[in-house]
Amino acid sequence: MAILKIARMGHPILRRVADPIPLDQIQGGAVQQLIQDMLDTVIEYDGVGLAAPQVHQSVRLVLLCLDPEEGFEVWINPILTPTTKEELVSTEGCLSVPGLRGDVSRPSEITVQAYNHLGEAFERTLEGFPAVVAQHECDHLDGLLYIDKVDTQSLSFLEEFKRFAPMPEEEDGE
Ligand code: ZN
Q: What separation in Å is there between the alpha carbon of 42 and the centre of ligand 1?
């Protein structure tokens, strides 16, 4: 078990476009170890998602918990495509931007094409909260942070957010 250090906003690795993982390496020791360490890390920090650049690995791999019953899933080399013009505004946080919350508007439905932790290709459509988490995490692979897209007037420290936000927010960070 290894809990990895989280890169915080300002670290250049968060601004790089991450590299694809060659498919023949997915089942190899290095990638499988990274997946295990990222799982330990995201659980330790109580996040709903974690992208490899957030743990100083500039590769296209994310972990997400889209359904608490199902636990975390692994997406490798994901490609997201919005399937609607409709946007959904939700409050986001990020383990790499600790202590802040802010509203971001994103397409409310997307399809993802990616590979799982076994290197199997899949395609899925997601809507609502899972679509938001997916976009937040996959933005990390392109060097983007939610703060780049946030409604700046909604930005809040966590303490003030909990005190003044109209709706209580359960998620702790992505
Ligand atoms: Zn994040």
A: 11
The reply to whether the predicted model has a pTM over 0.85 is yes
Q: Calculate ∠ Cα 79-67-146, nearest 5°.
A: 50
What is the domain range of residue 34?
Answer: 12-171
* pLDDT tens digits, 59-79: 999 999 999 899 999 999 999
The CA 29 to ligand 1 mean position distance, Å, reads 26
Instruction: Summarize pLDDT for 89-132 with one digit per residue, the tens.
Output: 999 999 999 999 999 999 999 999 999 999 999 999 999 999 99
Domain count, the chain: 1
Q: Cite the active site residues.
A: 137
